[in-house]
Amino acid sequence: MRQKKRSTRDIHARRYAEMPTSVQRHNLARLRQEMSLTQSDLAALIMRSPATIKAVEIGKLALSEKLATLISDVTGADKKWLLENNLNAPVPALRRSSAGWAPTDRAYDSTCLLLVDLLSRLFAVCRRLREGKGRQNLPRYIKDELELLEKTSYEPDAIQRYRASVGVFEFFAMHPHLLDPDLRQLINLDFLVKDAYEAQRLGQKAFSKATKRVGELEKGSNFSSRAGALSTERSSASATPSPKRRKGLRPAPKSS
Question: What is the pTM of this model?
Fold first, then answer.
């Protein structure tokens, strides 16, 4: 007779049942069995390493209240049941909603957390910069980006507003040892060089579109960019036009 195809849940259940008694030390393993998850699967869901999951399950690492809370929030498992770790107690029903469990929702939350991590790293790089005009200008650009982010909602076709010149990327491609260690690990210089050349080839069209949208949202500021280089001219929406220019700022050169 043709054997009935086993489900993924049955396969995981069998694997758990075949675990040596020595490694069946924690309810976390029972939770994984209930959810048909591998150690790697659960680690990805709670953004921890598989080694951490394994260490808890074999009793090498005590489950902290903080980690138990995270696991409970993500999976819907009973936090008290996890912390008490009574292997004879039945697995409580999971309290998770289908919306919060959807991969798209998890991807959204994970993207936001990833951006927080990346931005924090970038701000750390900023703080490591020596004092100078370049560092003094950074808060203004950051403030402009924050103001626009707060004023806009979902924008699926959003593109970057500021671009560095090709020379900036090529310099660090030739002298990577001079680049901040965090940036050296985070960015792909080969891609940035190619992208900058592509921007020069395409010219001003895409960035003119972005500049127009920004102008509609921020009537107090006038942004302009050239392919591969950026300059900014600030103006006050309420102030009377004056031929005097703010110290340190120059008007953007006209595009050819």
Answer: 0.46
CB atoms inside a 10 Å sphere around CB 88: 4
Domain count, the chain: 2
Q: Is residue 239 part of a domain?
A: yes
What does each C-alpha distance from 156 to 206, 214, 247 come to in angstroms? 15, 15, 37
Q: What is the dihedral of CA 105, 107, 112, 113, to 10 degrees?
A: 110
131: left (phi over 0), alpha (psi -120 to 50) or beta: beta
Instruction: Say how many residues make up the chain.
Output: 256
- Structure token digits, residue 175: 């002298």
Closest by Cα among 23, 111, 106 to 59: 23
CA–CA dist 42, 33 (Å, integer)? 11
pLDDT along the chain (256 residues), means of 10: 49 46 74 90 88 93 92 90 93 68 73 88 94 94 93 90 92 95 93 90 68 69 42 42 46 46
Full residue range of the structural domain in which residue 66 is found: 8-96
